[in-house]
């Protein structure tokens, strides 16, 4: 796989597109969405263009794809940002205009179900950015977490190397988006334990590849956007799990299938996001949440022992469904320095 292109970055005053390629949740939960839009405008200094399905629940895959195509085709639009994730973006992929998007590369920000579009862009040779949705990060109650804001600003506006930092605190428990009281102040956080290093005795550098583990499993089953395993030799894998909270057995089974496909052994290093361990359906207490994260780590390590025993891994990295969140470039360089316990990315 050739080195990917870093699209030109927007500047304050430029126009950015906000799209909903997975779900029109802005129409159901306007409070975090409007807050995120206001921060894009007032704090980041950007102008915003919305599209027909941005706030529309139930839009067809073809309609959502039309918005994606239009956002990339518009020469006035300098970046594209997803409102939120969802669960059926895989059905949008067949309607995307590959040649149009290849000819009009732009920075795209999203994660979770946007793993579909992120890997689609990577396969077109375009660096894309895992993180930074309007509703979840920009729409955070009270204020953006400082670590989130620094990373998002760097990825959105600048180019070059950026060092990730382990956070002193994190948030796992959510509050309802349809309750105005949620937005009266910042959410509560708890102390973070830092990154957990496995076989951190070397330095690895390579293009980043990965995303949400559950969505990757769907792409693998559908045979979409995942290239032959050898194409990823020397890449740095990054993975994270969602608020659906897959069990440790499910996590192991997915990684086992990736191992059987020959994927895991291609990656000399893995960054594993801090596991989301609370949801409205599973409101675990603190000890139970810690146990969930420990079991997931054990499942990942088991898969690595069996399929990539020489790989280095770093756990509880601030990527994906966690707060704070740092942006990871898909196709951009990632450097994992085990002896120095440092991780840097190229935006």
UniProtKB/TrEMBL annotation:
Pfam families: Peptidase_S66, Peptidase_S66C. This is LD-carboxypeptidase. Residues 205-336 form the LD-carboxypeptidase C-terminal domain. Gene3D superfamilies: Class I glutamine amidotransferase-like, LD-carboxypeptidase A C-terminal domain-like. GO terms for molecular function: carboxypeptidase activity. Belongs to the peptidase S66 family. Residues 16-131 form the LD-carboxypeptidase N-terminal domain. Keywords: Carboxypeptidase, Hydrolase, Protease. CDD domains: Peptidase_S66_mccF_like (cd07062).
């Amino acid at each position: 796989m050739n080195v990917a292109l870093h699209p030109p970055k927007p500047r304050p005053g430029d126009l950015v597109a906000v799209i909903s390629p997975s779900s029109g949740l802005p129409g159901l939960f306007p409070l975090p969405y409007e807050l995120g839009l206001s921060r894009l405008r007032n704090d980041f200094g950007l102008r915003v263009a919305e599209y027909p399905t941005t706030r529309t629940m139930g839009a067809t895959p073809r309609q959502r794809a039309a918005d994606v195509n239009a956002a990339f085709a518009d020469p006035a639009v300098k970046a594209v940002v997803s409102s939120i994730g969802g669960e059926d973006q895989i059905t949008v992929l067949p309607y995307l205009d590959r040649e149009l998007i290849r000819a009009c590369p732009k920075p795209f920000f999203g994660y979770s179900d946007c793993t579909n579009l992120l890997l689609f862009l990577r396969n077109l040779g375009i660096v894309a950015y895992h993180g930074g949705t309007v509703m979840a990060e920009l729409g955070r109650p009270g204020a953006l977490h400082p670590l989130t804001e620094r990373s998002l600003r760097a990825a959105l506006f600048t180019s070059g190397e950026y060092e990730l930092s382990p956070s002193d605190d994190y948030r796992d428990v959510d509050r309802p988006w349809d309750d105005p009281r949620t937005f009266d102040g910042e959410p509560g956080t708890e102390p973070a334990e830092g990154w957990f290093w496995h076989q951190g005795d070397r330095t690895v550098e390579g293009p980043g590849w990965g995303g949400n583990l559950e969505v990757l499993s769907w792409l693998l089953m559908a045979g979409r956007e995942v290239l032959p395993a050898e194409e990823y030799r020397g890449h740095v894998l990054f993975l994270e799990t969602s608020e659906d909270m897959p069990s440790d057995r499910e996590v192991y089974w997915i990684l086992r299938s990736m191992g059987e496909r020959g994927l895991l052994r291609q990656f000399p290093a893995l960054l594993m996001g801090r596991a989301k361990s609370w949801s409205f359906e599973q409101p675990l207490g603190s000890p139970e949440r810690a146990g969930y994260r420990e079991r997931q780590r054990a499942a990942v390590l088991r898969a690595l022992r069996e399929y990539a025993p020489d790989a280095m891994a770093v756990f509880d990295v601030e990527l994906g469904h966690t707060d704070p969140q740092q942006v990871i470039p898909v196709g951009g360089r990632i450097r994992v320095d085990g002896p120095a316990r440092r991780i840097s990315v190229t935006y």
